[in-house]
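Deviations from the work plan: none for this task. Representative record:
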Amino acid sequence: MADITAPAYRIIPIIPALKPGAMEGKGPFVASDKINEAIGFPGQLVEDWHDRAIAKMGELLGKYRSLKVFMDACVHCGACSDKCHYFIGTQDPKNMPVARQDLMRSVYRRYFTLPGKVFPKLVGARDLTREVLDEWHNYFHQCSECRRCSVFCPYGIDTAEVTMAAREILDTVGYGQKYSNEIIGKVHKIGNNLGLPGPALKDTLEGLEEDVKEATGIDVRFPIDVKGAEVLLITPSADFFAEPHIDSLIGYAKVFHATGTSWTLSSMSSEAGNFGMFIGNYEQLRKIALRIRQAALELGVKRIVVGECGHAWRVAYSFWNTLSGVGEGADPNDQFAQMLQKQLDHRYRQPSHICEFTWDMIEQGALSFDREANDKHIITFHDSCNVARGSSMGGYPGGQFDIPRNIIKAVANNFVEMAPNTTREQTFCCGGGGGLLTDDLLDLRVKGALPRMEVLQQVADEHGVNFMATICAICKAQFTKVMPIYGFDRKMVGGVHQLVSNAIKLGDK
Amino acid sequence: MSNIEVNGKSYETDEEGYLVNLADWNTDVANYIAKTENVDMTDQHWEVINFLREYFEEYQIAPAVRVLTKAIGKKLGADKGNSEYLYGLFPYGPGKQACKIAGLPKPTGCV
């Protein structure tokens, strides 16, 4: 992997010259028999893959009306073409969102429209051949489901949903991706993406209590499996394991400590992330979400708070209600969802984002900060795609943009925005989202980070920015890995609650 | 799946070169994997590898980066208990590269 280098910054950031075939290839590693069978998928590519794939496509078109509209509505206007970070970074025309979607749309036309059945060549319809299937595996794993292109689509076509459908079809025929499917298996078996068993988790948390005591002199607790706690914190397992993620976990614990909130983690449900969404599989999505409901019911908590994880917040904000009964709208016949509805305290938003929790406390005057503790940082904020375009915060449109920034400004003195066409709802993906944060896709990840790196370089040059805060475990891991390749220090990226942790006053020693 | 050949014996690895059977590990295999990773094994490297294996034996998972840095700091002195030191030894990242050489499974997820 030593030969992976960063593409040059563009002098004028416009549509790049095309390099047809630049990213042709086999795509990411295919999931093995063992990985696939553990989560109920066929072990390897089935013999009748063609018929099963078309049947699945028909099923999805019937089940999701949106997908059918997205297949029919595109007029190839090209508004999306230069909006994708992977197209900008790779210059491969098949990574224009319109072209990537057409890999599926052409097959749709052939099997599901009259003109495509009768005159396939005239309407650009293609048979689903093995080559086409391979192309799907390759290019639908060059989309991070970030939905930036959808912001610019005059028809509102949600490209991520097309990618999810393609991946769902690939899994149906036993041709899914190793990284995501292996992780899903670990959640079902152990409770988190890392495969971190309870005893290891407890050992790590005890170590953190010692560290914080040593650094501050205060006994800040990291409780786990505490029945009757008010708050259940569901956070990405990377927060227990990786740098800089763990510094935000320390930040959450300090906020709970300083506000006198009783809280707990769960060893059975120690993962906020939900890769079921990345592979477009509703059953996996639900099964993963139900672990959280089980933990909440067993522990008897009143509130569920979600840590710094981008896609987890989208799943929690948009889907937990019907999936599990956290929030309103659960099936009236779903006994456990109704039970959880009654148990949760509805004076608070259910679920809440940790940023909502912290900002509420700041507004109430329950927290105080030594902002100078962050003076070594000149900070900018990277909006994470699933938070920016798949959710909200604070109960008003745009709250998901304001609240993390409000927190940063409350705990630090130096804050600078990056270029406006790359932030808020127009934010660029870090380059590693949507199930692509794997070493076998590192070349793609480096290239996909290009547009974010360009504007970070701008604020670093003009304002001396030396810290980019974000609220997503994938963004943190991706930037830590790719930023050194662009000449930045890997420690330049960190969480919002890492900054909170630096500045929070914990009271008398 | 693929295989590596060390001292005339064949060992199964996954696509990325991680050992499939953890029991296959021995120091020769470790040295072989280190070479493929362009890591020159020194006593300092072995300190980390040995700690990883001991921790894994107890907890069935590699330690968090912070747990590892703390343990190394306690053993070798506070100046070495930081991630810079570990990145110096294992440039691709102490989490993954050191696990690979130690014959442990690759940490998965958002890490």
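The longest strand of chain B covers residues 2-6.
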